[in-house]
Amino acid sequence: MYCPYCKHPDSRVSDSRVADDGSSIRRRRQCPECERRFTTVEQIQLAVVKRSGAVEPFTRDKVVQGVRKACKGRPISETDLAKLGQKVEESIRSMGLAEVPAEEIGLAILAPLGELDEVVYLRFASVYENYASIEDFESGIAHLRNHSEK
Questions:
Q1: How far, in Å, CA of 100 to CA of 109, rounded?
Q2: How far apart are CA 70 and CA 117, in angstroms?
Q3: Is pTM beyond 0.70 here?
Q4: What b/e readout covers 124-150, taking b as 16+ CB neighbours within 10 angstroms?
């Protein structure tokens, strides 16, 4: 780690702490050359493996954008969407994988989405799971009913 003050190529770590959400590490450092202190935040970079095999960085905003389309005309606030995005990211990070298949992200979206709004859940699931018939919708509704009774 280069010192931001004198550009010395080394530094000593004096303190390390995991951030509140567990997704980053805050390190307090000191430069051996100029002896000034500075803080770094190290964050684990999640990657999404698409069906095509392409790999791209995970972004919470992309999750929220995808769900926002299913929310058209429903009483879902931006705060609700932000909380959903955070839940999905926490779920994905808890897997402990550096690269997560896109299918896993879709599954991670469905659980909190069912709690948020059942209609939005069905809209999202119908696209994500490629509902092709009325029976598919009926099984989706049955799934919601089973989880709402628990």
A1: 13
A2: 10
A3: no
A4: bbeebeebeeeeeeeebeeebeeeeee
Cβ atoms of 110 and 67 within 8 Å: the answer is no
Q: Is 67 exposed, middle or buried (CB count within 10 Å of its CB: 0-12, 13-18, 19+)?
A: buried
Q: Which residue has the tokens 């926490």?
A: 90
Paired with 56 in beta bridges are 48
Please report, to the nearest 10 degrees, the dihedral formed by the alpha carbons of residues 23, 46, 98, 86 taken in order.
50
How far apart CA 109 and CA 71 sit, in angstroms, is: 13
Span 133-146, average pLDDT: 89
CA distance 124 to 133: 15
* Tens-digit pLDDT profile for residues 90-137: 888 888 788 999 989 988 999 899 889 999 999 998 888 888 999 999
